[in-house]
Amino acid sequence: MKNRLLHFVVLITVQLGFAQSNFLWQGYFSYNEITDLSQSSTTIYAASENALFSKNTATGQIKTTNTIDGLSGQTISTLYHSETFNKTLVGYENGLMIVINEVDGSMLNVVDIINKQLPPNTKKINHFMEFEGIVYVSCDFGIVQFNLATLQFGDTYFIGANGAEISISQTTIYNGFIYASSNTGIRRAAITNKNLVDYNQWELIASGNWFCVSSFGPDLYAINSSGYVHKYDFNSNSFVGYKALAQPSLDMRATADYLIITTLNSIYVYNKQMELVRQINSNQITETNPNFTCATIIGDTIFIGTKEDGMITTSLSSAAIFENSTPIGPLRNNIFALQTTSDALWTVYGDYTVDYNPYGLDSYGISKYNASGWLNIPYEKVLGAKSISRITVNPANENEVYASSFFSGLLKIVDDEPTILYNQTNSGLESLTFLGPTYIDVRINGAAFDKSGNLWVTNSRIKNGLKVLKSTGQWQSYAMDNILNSAIDNSFGRMTIDKNGTKWLTTNRDGVIGFNESINKFKKITVGSDMGNLPISDARVVAVDTRNQLWIGTTKGLRILPNVGSFLSDDKLTTNPIIILEDNLAQELLYEQFITDIVVDGANNKWIGTADSGVFLVSPNGQVTKYHFTTSNSPLPSNVINDIDINSTTGEVFIATSKGLVSFKGLATAASDDLNNVFVYPNPVRPEYEGTIKIAGLLDKANIKITDIEGNLVFEKISEGGTIEWDTTAFGKYKVASGVYMIFISAQDGVETKVKKVMIIR
């Protein structure tokens, strides 16, 4: 099989975007975790964790569908394509069903199962089976009819003893009966019976726990939970043991010519005579040795779904050739951290719990995305680094990258190749020792480069918790036991370095620690009005904005240090909340919110990620919430935000969630060195546009004046970063009229100037 993990692959998938508040979103999803497959005569349809892709077997064209196109970010549990109606049904673990019209790509969200008055953990959709225009939907509570012509639900069947709810895993039609496998037996009823809502019409023909049931040719087969295949016997009206599988079955399905049974490590293909014509074992696919989830056949091609390695294809006739047909993307959807550069995006997947516990020690690789596509570096190449929690690119040399492992140390990557793993044996990094001298656990997390090219890193749960790898290659350590209440119990979060060279470190027990080696001082910001005024001592993120304010995100809200320069001049550092008016009541911005990240864009706006409430975009002073993106009003696949970063050149905002990576194509860019590349967007402004005008490519602290064609001033602002916004009002009082407006731009020193025009059409 071609080793798709080790080489750049040009992205050939079709990715569709849509406008959200007049901006474009983009999805960067992993399609490696296949949950189900379905097919037409010419196309294979695959469901990954929370996205879909299809491949035309004749043309080879691949199309992807994800939350950008309207899918839910919830976990997909099953998939079915109706060739008769040319519609694809997507079933979710929470009971949501989405119907995709393959003619135009339109989607219908069907929430009837979600809205049923049943326990939420019983609404999972397990299987779709179509018969005469009706889809029988197998759920964890019973069976529901769905009409493909009217797109309406029909009857619901609770077929357990005395009408109890039971989990139905699969249904099939055989000799005029509908058969249903469940965790309490196999039941059947006449498919023409008009009263199937009556549980008495369902006959129990096999007790026990059954995983699947499927008709194939003249016979009916079922597999119980222990992996024993049974065949239905007419004479005894019962299932008779047929053959034992080496492992429990995960999937059984029939095509016109073959019965396919999937276990974790094997796939069995039987012909109409029930002769085994092909057995595929996972160890035959030597490069990945995948775990299988399902399989099906179109023509002579077997399509295999896997747990982590996407969709693999092989032919019925060849036992040696395997190809991977998965759209290229990141290794996983649950991206824990990322960093962008001007032309690349790096992502890592290792993590730790809310209390900084890295166990059970994730073994994932690293991904990089640029114009050429995705480069996935597998775990086998990262020199044994587990639970990689951060990624840091050297701003002076973007080919030099450092990955922080919260168990194994610091991994250096040069020209996309891991070259050295710094740990307790070859660097100044140290292992925690409270578990004994022989136990090695080197917990590196937050990292940042200073202006001199030195890399500062945090080393948790040891005395000398702050380290620096100097540009000369030498290591130096700084003891923190005098500033931390208990150094060996402390874990560090993120880190940032301000314009004065002060390092700001977040901790889970002592708030924020500041350190500046030029004056050789540590200072602490923690709870208490005289100790810093944080809402809690567990701080997670720090960010310095263009006004030199330090924004601090904690597990219980937000605080602002008014000026980072106070570290050099003041003995005590005191932070303040942001007080806003909401419904004429004074409230604290993001009160009690668990803040996971804060990123400052080119207009000094703050992008704030939360642990369960999505993403907030607030104005430079925090008084205005410009956007609050969640799964309900945007393509975010999850409200759990792990990380955010912004490409300062393009303004693209990358948002890593627990269920996928998306980006928001804003235009807030970093400040430019001159005014040669100033541009205005949109231009012209048409009547249907409801957003703001962006003026980008600015110098920092440039003066912008906007006048009408007669020279009347309607707007004036000093830029903070590379972009400003104008809401097309005359100083916020009223919308300006249609016409051409002049934009006069001048640098702070007045040496450089630029004039632009924008047309507004009301």
Automatic annotation (TrEMBL):
UniProt keyword Signal, yes or no: yes
Keywords for the protein's UniProt record, in alphabetical order: Signal
InterPro entries: PorZ_N (IPR048954), Quinoprotein_ADH-like_sf (IPR011047), Secre_tail (IPR026444), WD40/YVTN_repeat-like_dom_sf (IPR015943)
PorZ N-terminal beta-propeller domain mapped to chain residues: 44-203
Record-given protein name: Por secretion system C-terminal sorting domain-containing protein
Annotated source species: Flavobacterium xinjiangense
Lineage: Bacteria, Pseudomonadati, Bacteroidota, Flavobacteriia, Flavobacteriales
